[in-house]
């Protein structure tokens, strides 16, 4: 499904709704969204584990979601809809008088405004963590890293624009989102556990395999960015591309996906024999996610990488990564240390 932004470059302010330019509605949406989050966040002053987990889940969703909206920018060739950073154009922070179509400018500017919502959720979790009693150093560390990661994403987005969407910067932009997701998922899991000692809930083989799936899964994500940087969806018609053989890098990506699937199926077998219900369920969820993602990947490849399937595939990538993380964290849990035992070191990510 190819969406045509128009016959040629036109000023972004030509798109109007109720006599207001589209960018004004986008700014309003972002402001209203941040205010709504602030009103919903009144629980941060007296946070409970339950309320904190809901906000932590929101952290996971928005940080994974911004990667999907970024893919929408890319497949619609809107990556340079705002050709400057932090401004949209040399003269303005909003898309007025851009060199791209109004459609492209609106997509890119809209993605930039969503960053404020992602940052707002991160700040809310940070404040709630500071207010939490008893104090949790491990949670404070993670709650600090997440909004800093979002700010880093914004800066890396600027570098991506300055390099005219070089595939290396585009790949780094996506992978940083996935790194922030690691911390967000760790926070989500850890906030309901005590600051105690780590106790495996599966056998040594299953724990080792779940740990091994982390680097393999990240390599799978990285290989996907190489396929993206070699393929047709560069974010702009003039964006540089890598000169790799598309079939070859796609096969490498596919081999890594099969490796993750094999690991997931092995985890299912291991956790059926010895393991907690949580690890067993997470193993099944990972296997299902990889199978669906694999089918989607082959279909999009055979159909010539249609735009809407590419966006779905990026969403699937984020879900598979989250499933890998949930499986890893599901193979062990923190429990209160026995009375008189030495305190366990506070670790940001176990």
Automatic annotation (TrEMBL):
Keywords: Cell membrane, Disulfide bond, Heme biosynthesis, Iron, Membrane, Metal-binding, Oxidoreductase, Transmembrane, Transmembrane helix
Molecular-function annotations in GO: metal ion binding; oxidoreductase activity
Transmembrane spans: 20-40, 52-73, 113-132, 139-162, 168-189, 209-232, 252-272, 284-303, 309-329
Subcellular location: Membrane
Entries under Pfam families matching the protein: COX15-CtaA
Pathway the protein takes part in: Porphyrin-containing compound metabolism
One record GO biological process: heme A biosynthetic process
Keyword Iron-sulfur among UniProt keywords: no
GO cellular component, one term: membrane
Annotated membrane topology: Multi-pass membrane protein
Name of the protein in its database record: Cytochrome c oxidase assembly protein subunit 15
Biological source species: Nocardiopsis composta
